[in-house]
Amino acid sequence: MKLRTLAVILAMGIATPTYAYDLDDLRKLQVEKKCNGCDLEGANLRGMSLRGAQIRWSNLSNANLNDVDLSDADLIGSNLTRARLSQTRFNNAVLQGVQFNGTDLSSAEFRNTDLRWSLMEHLDIDTDPQSLNMMTAKMEGAKFRNKRRCRGFQGDIGMGCIPDFR
User: Fold this and answer.
1) Is the pTM of this model over 0.85?
2) Is residue 29 one of the residues assigned to a domain?
3) Does a structural domain hold residue 47?
4) Which tops the pLDDT comparison, 83 or 158?
5) What is the spatial distance between Cα 15 and Cα 10, in angstroms, rounded to a whole number?
């Protein structure tokens, strides 16, 4: 019986994803608002003010960035795959070459944001068109493919959205 219980516990540990962000990188970001090439995979940054932060070429995949202020931030080349970005503010940010694969962008703001050469695949952008503001974003070379939901957009903003009339 004990052996069976141990096997179940071990199996649960193997099936559960673990994220090992670098605690020193997290502290550096919190104190200096500068962390280039950092490993912040799976970090919980929810609600932080990172206005003007420099986080270039960093791994933020699976991180919780819900309701984070990244206005005026520089995230060139960073990986935001499967990050939670609901209500995140990227106003006036530089996001060139950023990967947004499988992210939740519900109510995110991208006013005057530089998204050139970024990759946005498998997005969840089920939101009010005014709250996901990309109208003034620079998007030369950005790729938008396989959106999950893209409801409520009027007009073409280069995203190839298929209306969802649920």
Assistant:
1) no
2) no
3) yes
4) 83
5) 9
